[in-house]
C-alpha cells in the first residue's frame, strides 16, 4: 500500500500519523474534508474516513482510480452504502474495493453508557438533578411515577433482553451479568455464534455463553417472547432495511411493569410516534434512554425532549477518548492482512449493510 488519504476530523494526532507512515509511502490528511487535490484522490490506495463518504467537491467514487480499501472510523456503514455514487460503483462489475468499519472500538464507552442510563433511571437521578437545579430543597421522599415514596430499584434479578448480539450487545451482557442480571438475547439466526472482527481484550462474550436463552430477531413470535420476558430492553442494532421499524408500541408494551428501553444502536428501529405511544398509553409505565432517535437529530421542541420518563443524548455515547487511536489500530491491522492476502477484519457486507 503506497498512498493513504485521511479525512478524519478532528485531525489525526502526530503519533497516529507517524504510526501510519510506517505502513504507507505517503500519508495525506485533510480533516476539513475539502480542498483535496484530485491527483491525490486518483492515486490513493486507502481512504480513511468518517461515515460521510466523499470529500467535498468530489462527485464520484470513480475518481478514486487506485482505491482498494475504504476504512471507516465509525461502526455504521449505511451513509456510505446509501451514497448514490457508491451505489453506482457497487452495481458495476469491476468493484475491487473492500469496506471495513470500526465496529468493536466503542464497546468501552457505549456499553457503560447503557448501564449508566439504566442506573440513572433506577436511582431516579434525573429527578434529583431537576430538584437540585430548580427547587434547591432537601427532598428525601420524592414520589415516583405512581405516587409512591422514593425507592431505589435494584438491577439484581432483573431480566435484560438484548436486541442485537454483536460487539456492543455482548459487552452490555458481560457488564450487566456482574450486577446479577439474567441475560437473554436476540440475533438474526437465534443461535449462539462466535464474535468476529476487532475485539478489545477482556471485553464481550466471544462464544455467546452469557445469555440464558437466544431468540431470533427476524421471527416475530420469537422477538415478542423475548421482550415479554424482559424488564429492560437494550437495542444495539445497526441501520439496515431489516431493522427499520422492527419495534413498535405494541412490542414495547410487552415489557414488564416499569420496564426500561435503551437504544444505543440506530434510531430507525422504532418510529418516534410509536415510542411516544408506548410511553403515554402503555399500562406498563416504561422509561426510555436514547442516544439515537428517529429522525436524527430530534427536532427542537419535540415532545420527547420533555417527557418525564425519557433520557436523551445527541448520539454522543461513542465519542470516546482514544477513539481514533483504536480506529488506526484497525486500519493498520487491515493493511497487514491485505499485504499478506488475508481477509480483512470488520469487512462490511454491502448487501446486509453491516
TrEMBL record:
Superkingdom: Eukaryota
Ligase recorded as keyword: no
Keywords: NAD, Oxidoreductase
PROSITE patterns: D_2_HYDROXYACID_DH_3 (PS00671)
Domain D-isomer specific 2-hydroxyacid dehydrogenase NAD-binding per the UniProt entry, residue ranges: 117-317
Molecular-function GO terms, alphabetical: NAD binding; oxidoreductase activity
Pfam families: 2-Hacid_dh_C
Protein name (record): D-isomer specific 2-hydroxyacid dehydrogenase NAD-binding domain-containing protein
The organism of origin for this protein: Wallemia mellicola (strain ATCC MYA-4683 / CBS 633.66) (Wallemia sebi (CBS 633.66))
Lineage: Eukaryota, Fungi, Dikarya, Basidiomycota, Wallemiomycotina
Amino acid at each position: 500500500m503506497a498512498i493513504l488519504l485521511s479525512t478524519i476530523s478532528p485531525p489525526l494526532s502526530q503519533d497516529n500519523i507517524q504510526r501510519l507512515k510506517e505502513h504507507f509511502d505517503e500519508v495525506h490528511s485533510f480533516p476539513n474534508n475539502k480542498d483535496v487535490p484530485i491527483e491525490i484522490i486518483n492515486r490513493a490506495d486507502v481512504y480513511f474516513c468518517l461515515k460521510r463518504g466523499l470529500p467535498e467537491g468530489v462527485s464520484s467514487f470513480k475518481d478514486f482510480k487506485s482505491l482498494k480499501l475504504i476504512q471507516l472510523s465509525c461502526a455504521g456503514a449505511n451513509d456510505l452504502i446509501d451514497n448514490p455514487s457508491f451505489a453506482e460503483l457497487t452495481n458495476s462489475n469491476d468493484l475491487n474495493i473492500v469496506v471495513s468499519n470500526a465496529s468493536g472500538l466503542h464497546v468501552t464507552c457505549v456499553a457503560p453508557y447503557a448501564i449508566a442510563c439504566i442506573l440513572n433511571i433506577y436511582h431516579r437521578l434525573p429527578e434529583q438533578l431537576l430538584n437540585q437545579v430548580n427547587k434547591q430543597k432537601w427532598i428525601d421522599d420524592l414520589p415516583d411515577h405512581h405516587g409512591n415514596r422514593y425507592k431505589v430499584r435494584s438491577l439484581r434479578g432483573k431480566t435484560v433482553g438484548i436486541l442485537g448480539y454483536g460487539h456492543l450487545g455482548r459487552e452490555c451482557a458481560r457488564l450487566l451479568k456482574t450486577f446479577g442480571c439474567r441475560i437473554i438475547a436476540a440475533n438474526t439466526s437465534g443461535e449462539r455464534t462466535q464474535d468476529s472482527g476487532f475485539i478489545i481484550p477482556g471485553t464481550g462474550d466471544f462464544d455467546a455463553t452469557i445469555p440464558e436463552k437466544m431468540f431470533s430477531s427476524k421471527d416475530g413470535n420469537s422477538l415478542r417472547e423475548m421482550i415479554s420476558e424482559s424488564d429492560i430492553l437494550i437495542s444495539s442494532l445497526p441501520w439496515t432495511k431489516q431493522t427499520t421499524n422492527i419495534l413498535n408500541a405494541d412490542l414495547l408494551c410487552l415489557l414488564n411493569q416499569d420496564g426500561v428501553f435503551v437504544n444505543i444502536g440506530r434510531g430507525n428501529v422504532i418510529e418516534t410516534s410509536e415510542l411516544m405511544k408506548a410511553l403515554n398509553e402503555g399500562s406498563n409505565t416504561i422509561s426510555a434512554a436514547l442516544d439515537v432517535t428517529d429522525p436524527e437529530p430530534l427536532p427542537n421542541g419535540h415532545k420527547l425532549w420533555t417527557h418525564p420518563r425519557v433520557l436523551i443524548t445527541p448520539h454522543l455515547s461513542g465519542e470516546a477518548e482514544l477513539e481514533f487511536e483504536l480506529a488506526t489500530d484497525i486500519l493498520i491491522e487491515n493493511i497487514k492482512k491485505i499485504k499478506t492476502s488475508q481477509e480483512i477484519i470488520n469487512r462490511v457486507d454491502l448487501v446486509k449493510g453491516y
